[in-house]
Amino acid sequence: MLQTESERMRQRIKAMQETIDAQSERIAILLTQQARLGLDKDIGSEKGDDDSNLTNMMQGYIAEIENLRAKLVESESINSSLRRQTTESSPIRASSRATLSPTHIPLSARSVGFGYETEYADDVRVASVLSEAKKQVEHDQEKLTEVRARRSSIKDSDDDSSLSKDVEPTNNVEAEAESKGEEKEDGKEEEGIRDSEEMGEAEEDEDDDDEDEDDDDESSSSDSDEEGEDGEMKLQEELAEIACEINIKQRLIEELETSQRRLQTMKAQYEQKLESLQNRIKETENERDKVLANLGE
């Protein structure tokens, strides 16, 4: 808070110093003009009090013109400082526009020009940056959609593979049972009934083979499950990273647009004030010209 107030006072002091310099130069110019106008003792002796009144009126008009001119210089200086501060605080580092020098301020308000070519260039640059940022956000959103689609497709393929694995053991058991039945029938027809011990040994061998096959299936399924989990984790990390980038870019775009709107509002307000001051200077100078014309007559 104190730092902000100090910065504001520093800008105010700088503007007042520029105003003082402008007033000093204008006073020197006015003294030179007064010496050239020929308002000497001869004119005063001929016209007397009327000329004194006209001289006082002229001095009042000139003082009012100088007062308005000082306000104009001060307003222009504050406007330039605020514009530089707003530009430096934005993501775009634009070159600050040079302030209007008091020594180059013409006497007529009609010839006072305030160029806004640099401001227009800044507006174009900011608009291009906003457009580029929005394109990047759209690209990131498309990438996010692609990653989500890829994630859903991988998930669907994992579900299908798990279902196929559940169906294959059932089919194998049925096939083994049928083959065993056929072998038994063929054995009965060709060789007859085997001994109970031989039957027991054959069954034990078959059970061992089945257990080995089950172990192999479980190991392969566990490996595939681990690979699927790793792929799922990578996709989730990628999704989170893309979503974070989109959020950050959107916030930057919103802040930049808000700063641009604020800058445009300030610009419009100062343009109105400058136009009002110019109109007042013009009116005062017209009245002064009329008085000078009457004095010349």
TrEMBL record:
The keyword RNA-binding does not apply. It comes from the Eukaryota. GO terms for cellular component: microtubule associated complex. Residues 134-168, 177-197 have a biased composition (Basic and acidic residues). Keywords: Coiled coil. Residues 6-33, 239-294 form a coiled coil. GO terms for biological process: microtubule-based movement; mitotic spindle organization; spindle elongation. It holds the Pfam family KIF21A_4th. InterPro entries: KIF21A/B_hel_1, Kinesin-like_fam. One of its GO terms (molecular function) is microtubule motor activity. Residues 1-87 form the KIF21A/B first helical domain. Residues 198-230 have a biased composition (Acidic residues). This is Kinesin-like protein KIF21B.
